[in-house]
Every structure is written in structure tokens, then in C-alpha cells.
Amino acid sequence: VLLSITCSPPQNYPLYIRSIPTENELKFHYTVHTSLDVVDEKISAMGKALVDQRELYLGLLYPTEDYKVYGYVTNSKVKFVMVVDSSNTALRDNEIRSMFRKLHNSYTDIMCNPFYNPGDRIHSRAFDNMVNSMMMQVC
């Protein structure tokens, strides 16, 4: 399982990346960076409809043999990408959606911190604990 939070375009640099287990971390990073193009395509295809919607969940971006890649975009165009093992059939779309909402709420808490500069990498023990507990539920 991998979670990535990426800054808005045109930079698209990672603000937060966490993977469990860590042995395929480089492959996960490659998957996340290729999925950012798919996220941008989905956003441009939705156009103004995405702005009007309250739901920012993009759903399954693309499946591979080994993984399924899901996406979510905030109003400020910050992208959340989650990569899960395709053999995990217990995860349903509603569960992925609720995990992204939980991530978005925690990300909002970080953004409300007066000591956090938007665009900096996320270094928060509370956010790490929330992500770790969420990943343990998936694994």
C-alpha cells in the first residue's frame, strides 16, 4: 500500500509519501508519478463539472497486474494517490472513498496549523499516526 499527496500543478512534487512494505518503494514512486498524468486527464475531461461537484473522488485511475491506483483531488488541486494491492478484494469503492475523506480532513488540519507553510513537505506525527493506522487496516 502506498499513499502519496502531491502539490498542485505545474510543480507536482510530493508533499507526503508513505508505503508499507518498503521493499518496492521505487516501483511505487514510479506508479504514483505516472498516475499524476491520469489525474490531470480526468480533471481536464471533467472540466467545470469537477468545480461544481462537492465530491472530489476520482475513483480507480487505472489497474495493473499487481496494483490498483485510486485518486482524489482537493479544491486547491492537491492530489492524493493511493496504490493498493490488486489481490486485496476486501476493499470496496465506498471504503476507499471514506479513506480519502479522512485523509482530506487530516490534511485540512495540517493546513490550518499556523506554523505550516503551504507547499512544504508534511512532517506531522498526528498525520503519520492516522496514515499508519489506515494502512494497517488495508494490509
From TrEMBL:
The gene is Trappc2l. This is Trafficking protein particle complex subunit 2-like protein. The keyword Methyltransferase does not apply. InterPro entries: Longin-like_dom_sf, Sedlin, TRAPPC2L. Pfam families: Sedlin_N. One of its GO terms (cellular component) is Golgi apparatus. It comes from the Eukaryota. It is found in: Cytoplasm, Perinuclear region; Endoplasmic reticulum; Golgi apparatus. Keywords: Cytoplasm, Endoplasmic reticulum, ER-Golgi transport, Golgi apparatus, Transport. GO terms for biological process: endoplasmic reticulum to Golgi vesicle-mediated transport. Belongs to the TRAPP small subunits family. Sedlin subfamily.
